[in-house]
């Protein structure tokens, strides 16, 4: 029996539910931008397609530069009013917004499935982490803002497409809770409808949210260099992050710039291979399209045969395919590790990099096939890439020094501790790293030498939730660190002498706990 699309889960069904839930934000033919306290039918809607199967979906209504500047100025007007709203009222409004999002949790999840290709379980987790995480901030905010005031202007958010709710919307809600008006750019590659619905639910409760769409060249003068801004928050790659940092260099804006790094997993003097097999399988969640993915394994050469015996069963067990393909109409969405990559252009880019790496001497340890995926009959599969693992990628390959943002692993063999550390620090800084090692004394000696903000021992590290801090070392982060109380400190003003924990041009200050 061939799989079918789960009834009631088509994109047309999802969009119709959006129009019903928030008609002010969703018109029959397009979504709207929100600024100045109103939904605006402006901008030029661009066509868009779902990575799941090429279905046409709502595209971003791209603003021009002049309109974006007007939107930021309107955000400043909202900020000047909102910063004086009592904390108790801010808490009540944010809580009401969270309750509205909870009521529409399944619709937000379905939108993420179609817009960015997340399997249902992971998409639901993205929504739940946003809601649960901000509830924690509502409970804790009183102590966090003691002796602090909102910034002088709104917070501008530019984030990647992979976590629209648990990263971007979560940050927006906390920024508003701390007393700031909030401006956000909808990611160009996905998440528009999900963010628009969440913004509509928040705006209905009186939260000062601005949500606009557009390209970096058009919007950067407003969303990065706008003199009205109190802070710029960016999540994305190093190239784009470097451009943002350059634009901010002479402005003195508060900033939080989370950039990619090559997160490495070292294996040294280790023997718990059954545990590692499960961890490797889990590392393929969402096709490694996240900033804390582990695409590089650095392995002690003398252990390579045992590592390979643990690695291959893990990668062979990975399940991927259409996130809404079911055997029967009453079946739940399939339990997949990942669906498509964000675009078919990304699939081609990675496939070309893999071919080039192998042609120049890299050894293909594993190369999966789309025949192993779960797909609907005749569906477009150009957005999918099966898992790949390459031993010893050539140094000239982008796969050697950069994060692939896809289900492509590289494995490097080393003979000494010095080589292990050099290989794990190949990208001049990372967000996370892990060392699998049975000897505690060895781990205590090696872990401080790894240039990552968080270093796990025999377990992966992640961005974390609630009180857990987050940042990066080296070129993976610029500006204030976030997470827990640090997120609130990053978007509020303390004493004049305060030095925020972070990675700044003049200093790096690490928090006492990571």
Automatic annotation (TrEMBL):
Keywords: Oxidoreductase
Residues covered by the Aldehyde dehydrogenase domain: 46-486
SUPFAM superfamilies: ALDH-like
Protein name: Aldehyde dehydrogenase family protein
Stored Pfam families: Aldedh
């Amino acid at each position: 029996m061939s799989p079918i699309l789960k009834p009631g889960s088509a994109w047309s069904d999802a969009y119709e539910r959006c129009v019903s839930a928030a008609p002010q934000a969703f018109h029959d033919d397009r979504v709207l931008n929100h600024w100045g306290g109103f939904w605006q039918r402006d901008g030029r809607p661009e066509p868009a397609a779902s990575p799941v199967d090429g279905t046409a979906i709502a595209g971003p209504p791209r603003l021009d530069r002049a309109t974006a500047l007007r939107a930021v100025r309107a955000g400043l007007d909202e900020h000047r009013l909102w910063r004086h709203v009592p904390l108790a009222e801010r808490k009540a409004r944010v809580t009401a917004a969270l309750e509205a999002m909870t009521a529409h949790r399944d619709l937000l999840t379905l939108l993420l499935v179609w817009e960015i290709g997340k399997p249902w379980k992971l998409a639901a987790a993205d929504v739940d982490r946003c809601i649960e995480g901000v509830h924690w901030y509502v409970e804790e905010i009183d102590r966090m803002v003691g002796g602090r005031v909102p910034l002088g202007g709104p917070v501008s958010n530019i984030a990647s497409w992979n976590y629209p709710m648990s990263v971007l919307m979560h940050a927006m809600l906390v920024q508003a809770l701390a007393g700031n008006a909030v401006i956000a750019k909808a990611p160009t590659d996905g998440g528009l409808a999900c963010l628009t619905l969440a913004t509509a639910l928040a705006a209905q409760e009186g939260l000062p949210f601005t949500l606009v769409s557009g390209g970096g060249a058009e919007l950067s003068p407003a969303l990065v260099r706008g003199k009205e801004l109190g802070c710029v928050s960016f999540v994305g790659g190093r190239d784009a992050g470097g451009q943002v940092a350059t634009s901010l260099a002479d402005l003195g804006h508060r900033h939080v710039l989370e950039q990619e790094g090559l997160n490495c997993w070292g294996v040294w003097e280790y023997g718990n291979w059954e545990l590692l097999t499960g961890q490797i399988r889990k590392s393929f969640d969402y096709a490694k399209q996240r900033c804390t993915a582990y695409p590089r394994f650095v392995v002690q050469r003398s252990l390579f045969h045992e590592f390979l015996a643990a690695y291959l069963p893990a990668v062979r067990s990975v399940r991927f395919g259409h996130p809404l393909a079911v055997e029967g109409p009453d079946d739940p969405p399939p339990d997949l590790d990942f669906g498509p990559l964000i675009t078919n252009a990304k699939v081609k880019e990675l496939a070309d990099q893999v071919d080039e790496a192998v042609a120049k001497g890299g050894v293909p340890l594993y190369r999966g096939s789309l025949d192993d995926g779960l797909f609907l009959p005749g569906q477009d599969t150009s957005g999918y890439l099966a898992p790949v693992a390459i031993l010893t990628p050539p140094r000239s390959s982008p796969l050697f020094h950069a994060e692939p943002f896809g289900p492509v692993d590289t494995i490097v063999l080393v003979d000494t501790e010095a080589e292990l550390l050099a290989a794990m620090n190949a990208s001049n800084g990372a967000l996370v790293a892990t060392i699998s090692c049975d000897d505690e004394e060895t781990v205590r000696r090696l872990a401080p030498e790894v240039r990552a903000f968080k270093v796990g021992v025999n377990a992966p590290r992640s961005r974390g939730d609630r009180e857990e801090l987050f940042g990066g070392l080296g070129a993976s982060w610029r500006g204030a660190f976030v997470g827990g109380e640090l997120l609130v400190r990053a978007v509020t003003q303390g004493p004049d002498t305060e030095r925020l924990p972070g990675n700044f041009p003049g200093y790096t200050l690490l928090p006492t706990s990571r």
